[in-house]
């Protein structure tokens, strides 16, 4: 079982909740790798991670490395941000990315100008549905690395 972590960073940003099924996702992210749980029996990728394949009901799984490329499937600008740390960065984006390697897998995150840039580092006018993006990784707190996204064509 993963260790219990605090809920926010020192500056108030939310940290992911790591459970037993999803722990490998976060371990790979800490290495700068985007991986998705894949059924070892039928080879179907699945996200969020879970013990049983929804396609063939196998309990055997692997973690397939993804290219880290995708496209913006959806986005929002939260109004109003509810937590103080996020209000300080408003307007910021929250995006959903459809992975190029597994189009039915979609990951939520933020579009940023650089891996460690602020959540509001990309001009809101630059966001477009379908825009190509690539995964980058940033350490939010000690031992907690998250994927973020950058435009492929800055």
What does this protein structure show overall?
The chain is globular. The protein is mainly beta and 154 residues long. 8% of the residues lie in helices and 31% in strands. A five-stranded antiparallel sheet has the order 6-5-4-7-8, covered by helices on one side. Strands 2-1-3 form a three-stranded antiparallel sheet, covered by helices on one side. The termini are far apart. The mean pLDDT is 94.
Briefly summarize what is shown.
8% of the residues lie in helices and 31% in strands. The protein has helices at residues 23-30, 84-87, and strands at 35-39, 45-46, 61-65, 69-76, 94-99, 106-109, 132-141, 144-151. The chain has a five-stranded antiparallel sheet, with helices on one face.
First-to-last CA distance: 40 Å
Strand order of the largest sheet: 6-5-4-7-8
Strand content: 25-35%
Whole-number average pLDDT?
Answer: 94
**Which descriptor suits the 3D outline?**
globular
Rg value = 16 Å
Q: What is the ordering of alpha helices and beta strands?
A: HEEEEHEEEE
Strand segment count: 8
Which runs of at least 5 residues are low in confidence (pLDDT < 50)? none
Number of helices: 2
Q: How helix-rich are the residues, as a percent range?
A: under 10%
Structural class by secondary-structure content: mainly beta
Q: Which assembly state applies to the chains in this document?
A: single chain
The major beta sheet can be summarized as: 5 strands, antiparallel
């Amino acid at each position: 079982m993963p260790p219990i972590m605090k809920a926010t960073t020192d500056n108030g940003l939310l940290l992911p909740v790591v459970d037993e099924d999803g722990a490998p996702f976060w371990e790979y992210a800490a290495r700068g790798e985007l991986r998705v749980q894949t059924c070892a029996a039928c080879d179907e990728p699945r996200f969020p991670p879970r013990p049983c394949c929804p396609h063939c009901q196998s309990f055997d799984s692997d973690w397939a490395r993804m290219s880290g490329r995708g496209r913006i499937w959806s986005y929002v600008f939260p109004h109003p941000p509810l937590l103080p740390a996020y209000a300080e960065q408003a307007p910021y984006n929250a995006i959903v990315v459809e992975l190029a390697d597994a189009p039915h897998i979609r990951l939520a995150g933020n579009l940023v100008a650089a891996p460690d840039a602020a959540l509001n580092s990309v001009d809101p006018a630059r966001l477009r549905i379908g825009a190509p993006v690539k995964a980058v990784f940033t350490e939010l707190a000690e031992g907690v690395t998250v994927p973020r996204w950058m435009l492929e064509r800055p």
